Amino acid sequence: MDLDPEGLFRDDSDEDDDNVQEREANKEMVVYLIDASPKMFTPATKADEKEETHFHTIVNCITHALKTQIIGRSYDEVAICFFNTKEKKNLQELAGVYVYNVTEREPLDRPDARLIKEFSCIEDSFMSNIGSRYGITSGSRENTLYNALWVAQALLRKGSVKTVSKRIVIFTNEDDPFGGLTGAVKTDMIRTTIQRARDAQDLGLSIELLPLSRPDEEFNMSLFYADLIGLEGDEIVDYLPSSGEKLEDMTNQLKKRMMKKRKVKTLAFAITNDVCIEVNTYALIRPTTPGAITWLDSISNLPLKAERSFICNDTGALLQDPQKRFQVYNDKIVKFSTRELSDVKRVSSHHLRLLGFKPLDYLKDYHNLRPSTFIYPSDEQIFGSTRVFVALHSSMRRLGSEGMQLKGDVSFVEISLYAIVISNYSSLVIRPC
């Protein structure tokens, strides 16, 4: 038999037979707002004038994030927008805002190979094609940050906030964008910009800031951006990254923000032959392993599928019927169809089946084949699953041994896998954690 110990608790996104509509309902839309002012093109440290600039750091981070996203969550949509630019390119014709895109792609769309390739080389032609300038200066009424938030909000207007997560991520090393202004003009611009951000948040848009500290001073959130994104008290200090954060740390931080907290899988849990409940599985931690290589079409970004056919050795004809398998037994050839062989491997009609209970002292460390997976009842498809699950857990607590230790939510059950996992079905023993 073919054993697949990773199959039962593999993430739903790794399966071929996913429900596409469900994945689309959980997708994410992100607009990256990148500050293109001259300060972003200065060296990131004082040590060497040839050090990488903050603009270079951001380009590398976003490029890396797009490469990860195009495989793991290719149905998410991304837009890249620069503000404080000489040229303007947006539907609203607002000054100082440039929406970056490539041909045959919408401004907010799924990332493709061409976008990643051209965006990774944008530094070579940025000054000549787009340009950089100080957008908010003394004597000027142009508010490029306000314009950028307006453009980002317009890009995210499609899709419902009930089913789509929408985010605006701002990259800048300027902690006081209105520092060159004074008096009523400065007060008015700060007020209108913060109000624009709050209006976007009221519509369900999340605004995040990834600040970059300049060599001569640390980024001061209290000057402006704490009010923009809604931070108070200790949240301001906790939000700031450390001054010595390296490029790898920032890349990991961006990847961490891209990862969504969600359930691993929904399973049917058979308590008895007549009682079956629905549970969701959650994983606290998993080791990072290299993902499988997926070949994509460079234009459509769709996975390339490999197909194979069986050809008869005698006639050369293409065989359409399912192949027969055979096993020699007592000098006789016993034939199996593909469906019969699949039925032989199947040990249960449900994903999980409760086989019985053992005292806690019977469980050994080497019985656990992989990190713990926690299950939580769900009433979405099978109503009453929560009530049955709580009753089962209460009985296990009441009948448990004296050395049993309970922690966390009493509704969680840790699954200890120490039996053989056959295909997508498993023999399990459950115990309170």
UniProtKB/TrEMBL annotation:
Subcellular location: Nucleus
Domain Ku: 315-433
Keywords: ATP-binding, DNA damage, DNA recombination, DNA repair, DNA-binding, Helicase, Hydrolase, Nucleotide-binding, Nucleus
One MF term in the entry's GO annotations: double-stranded DNA binding
Keyword field contains Protein biosynthesis: no
Protein name from the UniProt record: Ku domain-containing protein
Region listing for Disordered, in residue ranges: 1-22
Keyword Calcium recorded: no
BP term (GO), one: telomere maintenance
Organism: Oryza sativa subsp. indica (Rice)
InterPro entries per the UniProt record, alphabetical: DNA_bd_Ku70/Ku80 (IPR006164), Ku70 (IPR006165), Ku_N (IPR005161), SPOC-like_C_dom_sf (IPR016194), vWFA_dom_sf (IPR036465)
A Gene Ontology cellular-component term: Ku70:Ku80 complex
Gene3D superfamilies: 2.40.290.10, von Willebrand factor, type A domain
Pfam families cross-referenced by the UniProt entry: Ku, Ku_N
